[in-house]
Write a structure and sequence with these properties.
alpha/beta, binds adenosine monophosphate
Length: about 280
């Protein structure tokens, strides 16, 4: 696997490649969820290019940025094991050269205002900015992202459409631990006690699917789900049942053909998110 730290070096290498490029942007502290994105790119016959960049502009909480796990050597070994072709691991200065304003200021309507948008002000502007910047550097044919960050994916899809970028966005299903907990770089920060409780997030999502299949009103399910999470010892920030395209609340199973339940909850000090496609 080739490792690039400079934009110019990566661009020079990419210019000499003839195979389609599949791009997997990450913030490192890699786990099997990230590696599955790389494997998907390879299965699709792409040259897999991953990036590791802990993007400061998408952290609304400086403590969260400071505590974000950084395990570059282990990540490199994992990427090699997944047959990744190239890793781009730039510095902040490479991504955001001094004096250049690369901020993306698109109107995502409600997509970046609900759920994560409400609780993490500025997060999606920073995310869209870095994804756009990385796409401009790598110019991939395909972009591989996880369903785990469903709202992020919706916003990136909208950005690709608004900017008319010639990129196919591929969604990878959420990879989970055997007990259902969605793999996340943040899981390593869970205390043993919270690690036991955290799978309740997925269990609540599964319960939600059963409840919606029984045609129970979404508002009723929401109240009960929030209670279940709190009873388990988690501190839910939100639990929403939304239309998978618009991210607006649905009231009833018949309201939409594509319904997703999305959760954010604190397990101790660690903020976890997850979602499940209900319909
Ligand atoms: P991150 O490094 O957490 O920003 O994530 C980088 C990419 O990996 C994003 O597209 C995430 O949605 C995806 N990802 C993170 N966790 C998982 C998971 N458990 N399963 C599938 N994809 C994931």
């Amino acid at each position: 696997m080739l490792i690039f730290k400079k934009v110019a070096d990566l661009r020079q290498w990419l210019a000499s490649q003839t195979t389609s490029v599949g791009f997997v942007p990450t913030m490192g502290a890699l786990h099997d969820g990230h590696l599955e994105l790389v494997r998907m790119a390879k299965r699709d016959g792409c040259l897999a290019v991953a990036s590791i960049f802990v993007n400061p502009t998408q952290f609304n909480d400086p403590k969260d940025l400071e505590k974000y796990p950084r395990t570059v050597e282990k990540d490199t070994a994992l990427l090699i094991s997944a047959h990744c072709d190239a890793l781009f691991a730039p510095t902040v200065e490479e991504v955001y050269p001094t004096g250049e304003n690369l901020t993306i200021d698109l109107d995502f309507k409600q997509l970046d205002k609900v759920m994560e948008g409400e609780f993490r002000p500025g997060h999606f502007k920073g995310m869209a900015t870095v994804v756009n910047r990385l796409l401009d550097i790598v110019q991939p044919h395909r972009l591989y992202m996880g369903q785990k960050d469903f709202q992020q994916l919706s916003i990136v899809r909208d950005m690709i459409r608004q900017l008319a970028l010639p990129i196919e966005l591929v969604m990878c299903p959420t990879v989970r631990e055997p007990d259902g907990l969605a793999m996340s770089s943040r899981n390593v920060r869970l205390t043993p006690e919270m690690r036991v409780i955290a799978p309740m997030i997925h269990q609540t999502l599964q319960w939600t699917k059963t409840a919606l299949d029984k045609n129970r009103p979404a508002a009723e399910i929401q109240t009960e789900a929030l209670q279940k999470l709190a009873d388990a010892g988690l501190r839910p920030e939100y639990f929403e049942i939304v239309d998978g395209e618009t991210l607006l609340n649905v009231l009833h199973r018949n309201d939409s053909e594509f319904i997703v339940a999305c959760i954010a909850a604190f397990a101790g000090e660690v903020r976890l998110i997850d979602n499940l496609i209900l319909k």
